[in-house]
Amino acid sequence: MNLHLIDILIIIGYLLGTIAIGFYLSKKASKSINAYFLGGKKISWWVLGVSNASGMFDIAGTMWLVSMCFVYGMKSAWLPWVWPIFNQVFLMVYLSAWLRRSNVMTGAEWLRTRFGDGRGTELCHIAVVFFAVVSAIGFISYAFIGIGKFAVVFFPWDLSPNTYALLIFFFTTLYVVKGGMYSVVFTELLQFVIMTIAAISVGIISMNMVSAEALDAVTPDGWNELFFGWQLELDWTGVIDSVNQKIYQDGFGLFGFFFMMMVFKGVLSSLAGPVPNYDMQRILATKSPKDAAKMSAIVSLVMFFPRYMMVAGLSVLALVYMGPKIQTNNAIFDFEQILPFAISELMPVGLAGLLIAGLLAAFMSTYAAAVNAAPAYIVNDIYKKHINPNADNRTYIQMSYLVTTLLVVVGIGVGLLISSINDIMQWIFGALFGGYAAANILKWHWWRFNAYGYFYGLVAGLLAALLLPLLFPELQPLYAFPFLFLAGLIGSISGTLLTPAEKDEVLIAFYQQVRPWGWWSPIRKKVKQRNPTFVQKSHFQRDVSNVVVGIVWQLTLVVIPIYLVIREFHAMSIAISLLAFTSFILKKNWYDKLEN
Fold this sequence. Notes:
It holds the Pfam family SSF. It catalyses: L-proline(in) + Na(+)(in) = L-proline(out) + Na(+)(out). Keywords: Cell membrane, Ion transport, Membrane, Sodium, Sodium transport, Symport, Transmembrane, Transmembrane helix, Transport. GO terms for molecular function: L-proline transmembrane transporter activity; proline:sodium symporter activity. There is one protein chain. Helices cover about 75% and strands about 0% of the residues. It is mainly α. Helix 7 (about 105-115) runs antiparallel to helix 8, helix 8 (about 120-155) runs parallel beside helix 20 (about 450-470) and helix 22 crosses helix 23. The protein is globular and about 75 Å long.
C-alpha cells in the first residue's frame, strides 16, 4: 500500500507522542516498585477502566473478530464468549471487590491472604508466577503475529512481517519499560481516543458506501440473524465457496454444541476470577473495592460500541468489495487478512492513517498491558521475596527493566514459530486458561481447599494445557476444556484431602475480610462464635441474578453497533430497549448496593 504523506505524518506523530508520554511519566514510575507496577494505587477507577478497555481492544483480536463477522455474520457476536468476554460481568458484580480487599500487588502475593504462610503457599507462589509468565509469553507471541500480518500490508518498505513486528515491538517496549504502569495507563487513554474516533468513522463510512440491498446480495440466508439452531445453517455455496471450508476448519458447524461448550467453559472460567495478567493488575491498582467493581463495569460500557462499529464496518465493506474477487479467484484465502486489506483498499486519505494509528494503538495497548503485568510476578514474588529482599527501589526498577526485556525476547521467539492468530488465540483462551480454572474456583468457594490442593491442581491443569497441542494438535482447544478442567479438579481435590486443612486463624481472617459465598459454613460458625456481632454480607442470590442480567446487558452492547451498521433497525430497537431495561435493573440491584 502506498500511504499518502498525511497518513504517514499521522502515524509518526502518534508513535512519537506515545514515547514522549512514557519518558515524561518515568519519574513518577521510578519512585517505588508499587508505583512502577500499580501506579501507587492513586489512579482514578475510570482511567483504569478505559485503560483496561484499551488493552483489550487488540489488533490481533480485532483481525480475528473481523474474519468471524465476515464469515458468521450476526452469530459472530456469540464467538467472543470463548474467551469469555462475559468474565467482565462476574468481575463487575462481585469478584473485583473480593480481589481488591486483599490490598496486595500480585495474584501470587494474594495467596498469602487465603492460605497463610507455609511450604504449600510457597509452592503456590511458584505455580502462579509460572502461569503468569507463560500466559504473558503467549500474549506477546499473539501480538507479534497480529502486528506483523497487519503491518506488511500497509507499510511501503519491502520487509517481512516479522521484521515489521520487531520494529514496532522496539518502540512499544521502550515506553513500557521506561514508564511502567503510569506510562501504560496514560498512553492507553490517548490510544483509546484515537481508536474510538477511527472505529466509529469506519462504521459511518460503511453505512454510506453499502446499502442494505448490496449487503443482502453478497451474504447467504441467515447471515443477519443472531439466533441459531443445533446446526449453523450458513451455506456460502455460490456466494463465496471457500467460506464453507473455513467454517469446516473452524469446527463451528454444530453451532449449538459449540455454544453450549462456550457457556460451560465460560461460566467456570469466570467463577475462577481473573487470571494473573493486566486485568488483575488494574483491579489491584484501584483505590478501593467499590472502585474495582466500577472499573470492571466501565470496560464493557466503553469498549464494545466503537470496537464493533469497526468490526461490522470493515466486514461489510470487505463482503461487498472483496467478496466477489475472492469467489472469482477461487483460491485459498487468509481470512485474517480481511481487516488490513479492507483498510488498504477502501479507506480514504487521512482516515487510513488515523485507522492505522488506531490499530497500532490497539496493538500497543494489549502488548504494553501484558508486558507491564508479568514482570511484577518475577520481581516482587521471586527476586524481592527470595533473592534480594533488602534492595533499594532503584535496584527493583532496574530488575523490572531486565525482566521485561527478557520476556519480550522469549515471546518473539514463540511468535516466530506460530503462523496463525486463531491457533494461538484458541490455545491461550481455550487450553491455557482452561487449566487454570478448577483450582481458582475452589480457592474462592470451598473452605477446606488448601495451598497444596491449589498447587497440585494448578500444576495438573497447566501440564495438561501445555501437552494438549503436542499430543492432539488437531483438537479444538474448547472441546478439550472438560478434560483440562477435570485434570485440574482431580489434582486440586487430591492435594487438598491428602494434606491438613489451613489454620483456623487464616481462614477466619480471610472469610471476614473477603466475605465470599460458597461452602464456608464451618468457618462462618467459628467467626460467629468469636464475634457474635459479625454480619454475613455475602449475597449469593443477588450476585447470581445480577450476573445473568449483566450478561444480557453486555450482549446488547455488542449487537447494537452491528445491527446499526448492517441496517437491521427493528432488531436494533429491541436490543436498545433491552439495554435500557437491564441497565435499570443493574442500577437498582448492583450499583446502588455497592459498599464503600
